[in-house]
């Protein structure tokens, strides 16, 4: 049985305090809940709920629920021009999403790549039962995204040139696909990916790593 796609309206705040409402598209293997546990999987950048489809069937056999939200503006859940793609904003979104689902059973967080920082932070903030990080970002900038200024200044340039974005899109897409051996489904997503990567906390996750010692398991 494959996980079904669901929709839920989520209100959250950007880093500047602006309140946004987004109709979030997410996968959910057991919409009515599990008596055992719920696993919340946080995708990377680029990424989506589809990254965890093999895990879904395995957990379903164990009667464990798997939910995978798609972050706004990154390809599946619709974006908003006010989005800043910062960790603070991502945390506001992820916590609001989980609050709306009103999960009562044990919560286990999984984070892949860029999503590992947010899975880590959420696990600590919500005192999760467990935490799994796959290809986590770590405490130093990974060689694949060095030098990080390419992402920071590249994203800043794009978002400062609103009238020219449609002209820039194919160039950003070509640069991204030729340098990172990945395919961007839509060219306008690439600068959003870049901004999300540019806003990694890196060393800022150290206090959260330390606090994982206080998690239940």
Automatic annotation (TrEMBL):
Pfam families: DUF1057. SUPFAM superfamilies: alpha/beta-Hydrolases (SSF53474). This is AB hydrolase-1 domain-containing protein. It comes from Diploscapter pachys.
């Amino acid at each position: 049985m494959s996980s079904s796609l669901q929709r839920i309206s989520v209100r959250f705040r950007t880093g500047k305090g602006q309140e946004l409402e987004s109709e979030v598209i997410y996968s959910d293997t057991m919409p009515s809940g599990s008596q055992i546990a719920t696993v919340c999987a946080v995708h990377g950048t680029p990424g989506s709920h589809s990254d965890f489809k093999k895990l879904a069937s395995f957990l379903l056999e164990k009667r464990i629920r798997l939910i995978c939200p798609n972050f706004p503006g990154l390809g599946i859940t619709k974006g908003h021009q006010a989005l800043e793609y910062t960790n603070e904003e991502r945390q506001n979104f992820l916590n609001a999403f989980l609050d709306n689902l009103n999960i009562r059973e044990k919560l286990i967080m999984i984070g892949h790549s860029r999503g590992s920082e947010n899975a880590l932070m959420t696990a600590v903030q919500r005192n999760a039962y467990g935490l799994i990080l796959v290809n986590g970002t770590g405490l130093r900038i990974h060689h694949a995204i060095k030098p990080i200024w390419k992402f920071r200044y590249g994203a800043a340039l794009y978002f400062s040139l609103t009238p020219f974005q449609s002209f820039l899109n194919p160039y950003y897409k070509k640069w991204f696909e030729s340098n990172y051996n990945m395919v961007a489904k839509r060219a306008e997503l690439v600068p959003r990916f870049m901004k999300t990567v540019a806003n990694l906390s890196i060393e800022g996750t150290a206090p959260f790593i330390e606090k994982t010692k206080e998690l239940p398991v």
